């Protein structure tokens, strides 16, 4: 069943004490696909990823990564999957070269020296290879971490919020690298909070409170909620946002600086309400495509409020 | 100075104090230390430790049984310093009991002792003492002179009264073995080896493993194909090397700087040290599995170290402690190592004399290692 999939998990569940961190999640990632894993903090993304790479025992469900069973074939999964933790988890008191060399040894790589040299060159860090990893900036640490978990040529990458706290230029470079890897047939599952990154994924899953709420390409995810949206431009949008919130047809208002996004399921009712609202004011009303962000905010507000925190 | 207090806000200052208390309350282990350390210290120092150790185990080798020898033995018991634990057949058995530390004293009653007393020939009793730890024997040996006197008061009456007058009817010759001059340093310096190794080994392994967890690098290690047993043993081996290095430094200092006599075998010393290092490393690993961070690992080490230091016979004579404290002491690896190391240094013990203190260390290591493996987390669960 899993031959075509890099990841194929069914009904994964995990609880920590009374708290259900992951609730019956099933998802499939095709080979060579960049799969975006979205959801607020504590929604269960990290827990799901850890179960996929054998770091946590699922309480229920089953699945495969690269065709290996996530419970029985842990050792094989570890050999063929690259996992990048949310927090930088290489040794800050080792140099860049020592870190890479250690990782290469862990994977029993036969051509260790060349692989490490190549990775350092690829990073463009040849001159700084003797620097301590702890002295690197956030963006460099993240590049080093990616290089380290790519060292053993994994066919699947599991990246847990790799770009958190990284500047936009470094993020852009990082994503170009991911697309390059994907073109080589490497599958990537990446969790993120950034909408622009979500848009760059082939497929998305949105998880909240341990439940999978939406799943598909970004277009499919947007379409699945059946929202129509309008943008209002003008002055004092914050007051307008308050006023519109309880009006008929309005299900969500989100303020974006110079524009107010208003969304609702009933297109006609919403349009009538909005036309009335902007009638005798200097406001410009504009039909727009519902954005991914609108949909995610909508999904979150429609779900049960979250209790506690787990990741 | 005034500058420092300029603009001092009492309410701000008070909120710092409140915050500190809030955090202390959440930190269970620190809280336990605040309460636990004084209680432990008070109990140990107040009840367990005794600088006037009494009831030291004493064996009798008797070639003569009579009213007078019975009075001698009774008088020794009466002094409270000697606890007669039985008779031994011969000199050799006595020496081995002393070497293994099973007894502190051996009293030799020579043949014809009673006859010689009655003839007024002032015979001698031989009291052999394990003087490794001078404090353990000093008070008891001081009490010995009373014994002859009490014998004359009880048994040498009536027609024998003339023997009681003037000089004592017999003398007690004291033979201080292993540390004849009673030099405290001879006892303390070898003992320090175990104390230092306990602290360093437990602390360093504890920190080494919790550090990986605290910094998040453990997750990375677990995600790589390395086996848990490889991680665990791989992290331990450097500390075995460090332990042996430290032992060597202490050994050299003991021999060259402090001029401690060395009667035993260097090979036995290193074997015993290796075993002891292993015992402490297993403790360190177990603590590191329980501790959430490096601070907790450090606090747990303190809890472990304190009884080791006080109840192992390092600072105070083991046999002089009350029964319950000896029971606790019997669970601690340092107790056995102290006997081993002093035995090797001062008594020149061979393997079979050391064996009674070697096997408990082996059992301890195996038991704690089993616990460590049970607690070791292969996943992040």
Which terms would index this structure?
heterodimer; A: alpha/beta; Rossmann fold; Alpha-Beta Plaits; 11 helices; B: alpha/beta; abc type-2 transporter like fold; 5 strands
The helix/strand class of chain A is: alpha/beta
CATH 4th-level superfamily of the largest domain in chain A:
P-loop containing nucleotide triphosphate hydrolases
Anisotropy-based shape of chain B: elongated
Q: If strands are numbered along the chain, what order do they take across the biggest sheet of chain A?
A: 6-7-8-3-9-10
Proportion of residues in helical segments of chain B: 55-70%
Query: What is the class of the largest domain in chain A in the CATH system?
Result: Alpha Beta
CATH topology of the largest domain in chain A, anyone?
A: Rossmann fold
**Shape call of chain A:** elongated
What is the count of distinct domains of chain B? 2
Report the radius of gyration of chain A as a whole number of Å: 22 Å
Total strand count of chain A, please?
14
Write the layout of secondary structure elements.
The complex is a heterodimer of chains A (311) and B (381).
Chain A: E1 5-16, E2 19-30, E3 34-38, H1 45-52, E4 60-65, E5 68-69, H2 74-80, E6 81-84, H3 96-106, H4 112-123, H5 138-150, E7 156-159, H6 168-183, E8 187-192, H7 195-199, E9 203-208, E10 211-216, H8 218-224, E11 228-233, H9 237-244, E12 252-256, E13 259-264, H10 267-278, E14 284-288, H11 292-302
Parallel strand pairs in A: 3-8, 3-9, 6-7, 7-8
Antiparallel strand pairs in A: 1-2, 1-4, 4-5, 9-10, 11-13, 11-14, 12-13
Helix pairs in contact in A: 3-4, 3-5, 4-5
Chain B: H1 2-5, H2 10-26, H3 28-48, E1 56-62, H4 67-78, E2 82-87, H5 91-99, E3 105-109, H6 113-118, E4 124-130, H7 134-143, H8 145-154, H9 161-164, E5 171-177, H10 184-215, H11 217-223, H12 228-257, H13 266-290, H14 294-311, H15 323-330, H16 333-347, H17 351-375
Parallel strand pairs in B: 1-2, 1-3, 4-5
Antiparallel strand pairs in B: 3-4
